[in-house]
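Checklist before submission:
- one chain only
- standard amino acids only
- sequence pasted in full

Submission:
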Amino acid sequence: MIKKVMLHTAEDLREFMYLAMQSAEDIGVHTEDKIADAKSILGLMVLDYNKPVKVVTDDQRFLKQIGKWVVEE
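Returned file contents:
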């Protein structure tokens, strides 16, 4: 599944990564030109969060946990 999320603060990013690390599934974070592993702080830090990013995973539990950051498409 693909969800668009908007992370506003460093605390949002930290919490998002912590939740991703709890998942056994792969979780990708995509911008228009970059892809990062949601479990990698370095990967996440290089992305541009001025616009929503796409989160790609099959982990339904994780997708429910990040609901507060999901934006409408």
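Reviewer check: The CA atoms of residues 11 and 44 lie 13 Å apart.
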